[in-house]
Amino acid sequence: MQSKVGTIQTCNVVKRITKGFVIEKNSEEIVLADGEGTEDLEIGQAIEVFIYINKQGNLAATINLPEVTRDSYGWAEVEEVIPNMGVFVDIGLDDKDILVSEDELPHLKSVWPQKGDDLFVSLELDKKGRLIAEPISEQEVMDDLEQAPASMLNEEVTARVYKATKAGSAVLTGEGYRGFIHPHERKEEPRLGQTIVGRVIDVKEDGTINISLRPLKQESQKEDADVIYDYLLENDGVMPFHDKSDPEEIRETFKISKAAFKRAIGKLLKEQKIEQKDGETRIKHDS
């Protein structure tokens, strides 16, 4: 039965014991503890169970079948984050959470999942035969891709991050569509497992979508202008940024493109809140 750990198996109920039942498959026996749904079991009945190893290190079975197994992927909620080890996720077992090793998580701990986030994982056995959870790979997502319709363009979508890299964030929507968020389309990098709400800015030929976490241009202009003005207030009303400033320096400081920076500066100039002189931008004070 050890080889069946992490899988759903059909077993026969052999006998009743104190606080549970003995079940059997191919002459191998395992204990099924009393719990929700076991009160109506009968001797000789064939039932489906999930085989796992409990906290005591013993083989155990449950009739509450998890979505996440060695044969299937599913969403699992993060229950605990342990630095230098990984995170534990809840796959639906009453007495055990499953480890996602730090080796399977982003190098930057700032984008590690937090408690309450959700990871799309399946189960594997480590070298010691223990159950571990592993996030889905990019190839597995593409192999089972649900193609997004062209009508999704400009729609708002809710999705969860299943992969976080320097190149961008890969997400899955509730409908199973694969999305991508380029670093230029976000102000902060979402965490692995974080739920995001964004806007579809492109539906590609392969059925994947590109998503922006930035507001629409007219909304963004006001927001960016506020950020720049607040920066000025925090820096004695003056900053070395202007229309000719380096785009990378602008992005590093304000998390926006140079085009967005120029639009926001234009808005502040029009409102006569700032002035530009000698390569600097200053808050404009009434004479």
Task: Give an account of the 3D structure.
This protein is of the alpha+beta class and 287 residues long. It has 4 domains: 61 residues, Beta Barrel (OB fold (Dihydrolipoamide Acetyltransferase, E2P)), CATH 2.40.50; 63 residues, Nucleic acid-binding proteins (OB fold (Dihydrolipoamide Acetyltransferase, E2P)); 67 residues, Nucleic acid-binding proteins (OB fold (Dihydrolipoamide Acetyltransferase, E2P), Beta Barrel), CATH 2.40.50; 67 residues, Arc Repressor Mutant, subunit A (Orthogonal Bundle), CATH 1.10.10.10. It contains 4 helices and 18 strands. The strands form 4 sheets. A 5-stranded antiparallel sheet has the order 3-2-1-4-5, with no helix packed on it. α2 crosses α4. The longest helix is centred in the last third of the chain and has 18 residues. The chain is elongated, with a radius of gyration of 27 Å. The mean pLDDT is 90.
Q: What does the secondary structure layout of this molecule look like, with pairings?
A:
Elements: E1 8-17, E2 20-25, E3 28-33, E4 46-53, E5 59-62, E6 74-82, E7 86-90, E8 98-101, E9 118-125, E10 131-135, H1 138-143, E11 156-165, E12 168-173, E13 178-181, E14 195-203, E15 209-212, H2 217-234, E16 238-239, H3 247-254, H4 258-270, E17 274-277, E18 280-283
Parallel strand pairs: 13-15
Antiparallel strand pairs: 1-2, 1-4, 2-3, 4-5, 6-7, 6-9, 7-8, 9-10, 11-12, 11-14, 12-13, 14-15, 16-18, 17-18
Helix pairs in contact: 2-4
